[in-house]
């Protein structure tokens, strides 16, 4: 069945609550589009960058809450990107999640050393990713009625 949703089409939150802002960094256009559509169906606000240099610019401009990054990227690989983001971002830092075909223990250690918070090997189960993102949102962006009065 063919989807009528486009990868660049935003989804509105039905209850008016703030959406988790996610930057997908993926050089394969089909993978990036599929991930963007999936995450928008989960009602997240999604941007896409197709190389490390563009991702760094977008991350600094848009200040996403979460960055999903491939490791094998042109211009600036995922590890270099993570290090650059960690050194340039001041204030609230994004959750960095590697979604990569690089799955050896050495790759995961290198991700940790670069400042990547989680490292998933492709293909990632969409429900696992959704659960991680929803748990992060609950901690990072609690609903107004859940915040203590000041």
Descriptive overview:
The protein has helices at residues 29-41, 52-62, 78-88, 105-114, 126-140; strands spanning 21-25, 45-49, 66-69, 95-100, 118-121. It is built from five helices and five strands. The chain is α/β, with parallel strands linked by helices and 150 residues long. α2 (52-62) runs parallel beside α3. It is globular. Helices cover 40% and strands 16% of the residues. It has a five-stranded parallel sheet, sandwiched between helices. The chain has one domain: 3-Layer(aba) Sandwich (Rossmann fold). Mean pLDDT is 88; it is low at 1-12. α1 links the parallel β1 (21-25) and β2 (45-49).
Quick structural gist:
This protein has helices spanning 29-41, 52-62, 78-88, 105-114, 126-140; strands at 21-25, 45-49, 66-69, 95-100, 118-121. It has 150 residues and is of the alpha/beta class. The chain has one domain (21-132): 3-Layer(aba) Sandwich (Rossmann fold).
